[in-house]
Amino acid sequence: MRLWPRHPAAIPLCLAAAVEAQDWAALRENMVRTQIERRDVRDPAVLKAMRATPRHLFIPENVRNSAYEDRPLPIGHGQTISQPYIVASMSDLLEIQPGHKVLEIGTGSGYQAAILSQLAKQVFSIEIVDALAKTSTRTLRELGYRNVTVRSGDGYRGWPEEAPFDRIILTAAPPEMVQALVDQLKNGGRLIAPVGTGSQVLVVVEKDAQGRTQQRTRYGVAFVPMVPGRK
Ligand code: SAH
Predict the structure, then answer these.
(1) Is 168 within 8 Å of 181 (Cβ atoms)?
(2) Exposure letters 2-22 (e unless 16+ CB within 10 A, then b)
(3) pLDDT, average across residues 22-41
(4) Mean pLDDT along residues 38-45
(5) 192: CATH
(6) Each residue's pLDDT tens digit, 83-99
(7) Is 108 contained in some domain?
């Protein structure tokens, strides 16, 4: 007896959906193993979040089939969702604790915010393109990430009403470190940002208990530029 219909069209719709869901899960598992664990990301909470988050639901349908590939993808408005490894690596370098309040600059698709929301207590995210702020808000709400607040605005100013933050992550590159954002970091806090024009480097800023800062450069990256804010 053959249990499986030979022709895909013969599979009832609900079963087809289940088969498809399984495919996404398998692709995601493969992404975590080959692109993230095999490189240098070790934090179990980050790996768990990468395994649990449906990246394909954060991107437009025309690129959905590439959702779990080892590269950034276009999300419209000239913007991109970062490569999965970069999302995981930056989350790992931030060393987020469950009680933390996190600020993200550059919400984009909302995918990085969804990962952060599983590591922290609260996530605040600022996006300068109104349409992206709206779509990402809807995606995050529909998928049940309730501890993320997105607002449309200029990331260079940070979010003074919610400051200070335990952790700050920039996912668009300013030409140089943004002092207003360093100022919104708690003592003992950490900020991560791609910095530079043309060639960029990933910079980690640590603020000690006395409020003194120290910077370390990690590796070269290629993010979209952080656009100057609206006046
Ligand atoms: N974190 C995103 C990827 C971000 S791409 C994700 O997971 O999908 C960078 C984003 O930064 C873009 O959406 C871009 O519109 C936004 N951006 C650029 N300049 C900005 C600024 N000054 N303030 C806030 N957002 C900005």
Answers:
(1) yes
(2) eeeeeeeeeeeeeeeeeeeee
(3) 95
(4) 95
(5) 3.40.50.150
(6) 999 999 999 999 999 99
(7) yes
Q: Which atom of ligand 1 is nearest to the CA of 156?
A: 22
* Ligand 1 center–CA 86 separation, angstroms: 15
Say yes or no to pLDDT of 21 above 90: no
Pocket residue to mutate for ligand 1, from 79, 91, 102, most atoms within 8 A of Cβ: 79
Query: Which atom of ligand 1 is the closest one to the Cα of 106?
Result: 11
Let me know if residue 98 belongs to a domain.
Answer: yes
185-197: burial string, b at 16+ Cβ within 10 Å, e else: bbeebbbbbbbbe
Overall pTM > 0.85: yes
- Structural domain includes residue 88: yes
Cα(129)–Cα(151) distance, integer angstroms: 10
Question: What value does the mean pLDDT take over residues 135-163?
Answer: 98
